[in-house]
Amino acid sequence: MFNQKVVEKELRTYHRKGPNKTTRILLDQLVSFIDDQNSLLDIGGGIGAISHELSQKGLSKLMNVDASKAYLDVAQSEAERLGYRDKASFYYGDFVTLAPEIPSADVVTLDRVLCCYDDMSALVTKSIDRTNEYYGIVYPRTSWWVRLGFSGINLFQRIKGSSYRSFVHDPKVIHAIIHSHNFKRIFRAIKGIWVIEIFRRDLSKD
Ligand SMILES: C[S@@+](CC[C@H](N)C(=O)[O-])C[C@H]1O[C@@H](n2cnc3c(N)ncnc32)[C@H](O)[C@@H]1O
User: Fold this and answer.
1) Is the CB of 123 under 6 A from ligand 1?
2) Structural domain tally of the chain?
């Protein structure tokens, strides 16, 4: 699904226009909360837009995990080009499997990633476990027309012979896991088919 051609096209778009709209909304909010001592773990970061943008804010450590080698290689080359490779780490593989060897971070993001992964409960549980303070997610709304669109994408992938599937997960389940880890929501926005949310650890409950 995320092959070299798709990845290179996305990188060209990023160079021309910057991060896409939902990523921009997530970033604008995160920037207002975090400081330059914070570390980032971006799971399924694609070309690495969140890391590239937050590296400009001087974050101390930027970690990227991606199950796509094509995406991860591009994110790494961009980190070199932008001059922050020494602060960055890149992990190739499924985060759910890699989680025990990935350090925790002050800010953890999953931007349009939950919808690419079947076992959402494991992905949310293991990623919130790695979050010190802020947890940012972008995921699809559950409206019938969004579900219909995702079914269409899956049918198209099946016909193409691809094993890729996209998922519209239940936000109640996502929220139940996050809240059970003592995080409370501090931001929510809707843009097109996407919900953008940020949660903060509720220190009063720790
Ligand atoms: C739709 S792309 C989104 C990329 C980027 N975050 C963005 O919003 O432009 C989904 C990304 O998540 C990655 N991904 C999905 N599930 C993953 C998992 N369990 N572990 C690591 N990466 C994952 C895919 O490889 C892909 O790079």
Assistant:
1) yes
2) 1
